[in-house]
Amino acid sequence: MESSNELQHCGPFCFSLFAPSDLIVSNCLWFNAHLGIGLYLYSRQHMKNTSSYRRIMYSVFGAVMFNFGSVLFWATTKALLLKNEMIRSLFGLGSGLALLYIGREYLDFIDGQTQDLKELD
């Protein structure tokens, strides 16, 4: 249990919404993140012509790489940012949105390339 002295120096963003169940909540969020990205990849146009086994394998790989890559990016950039919770929070939200946008653009590009190849045949 943290003492009141520790909480005073913690800052405005240092609190727990789910105090006794933090680990359960974080694991559920991880699971949902992997499941959401994995299902999104699985349903993309460029994956339609491959076997179910490969679609699952590529989707799981893509979800894990995207999610853990994002966390690794945030962990390494944390050392470069100022020790200001507001700046770090805004950076996290902004970069998260940017990563999702770039990922979607990339997948749209790949789907377009797949569509162009089908039209040539």
Features:
single chain; 121 residues; mainly alpha; 4 helices; disordered N terminus
Structural commentary:
With 121 residues, this protein is mainly α. The chain has one domain. It has four helices and no strands. It has helices at residues 4-8, 22-42, 52-78, 85-120. The longest helix is centred in the C-terminal third of the chain and has 36 residues, at 85-120. The radius of gyration is 19 Å and the shape is flat. It starts with a helix and ends with a helix.
Task: Describe, in short, the structure shown.
The protein is mainly alpha-helical. The chain is 74% helix and 0% strand.
The string of secondary-structure elements, in order, is: HHHH
Overall radius of gyration: 19 Å
Give the terminus-to-terminus CA distance.
Answer: 66 Å
- Measured as a percent range, the helix fraction is over 70%
On the 0 to 100 scale, the average pLDDT is: 85
User: Can you summarize the main beta sheet?
Assistant: none
> How many structurally independent domains?
1
Category by helix and strand content = mainly alpha
Separate helix tally: 4
Low-confidence stretches: 1-9
Can you tell me the overall shape? flat
DSSP strand (E) fraction? Answer: under 5%
How many strand segments?
0
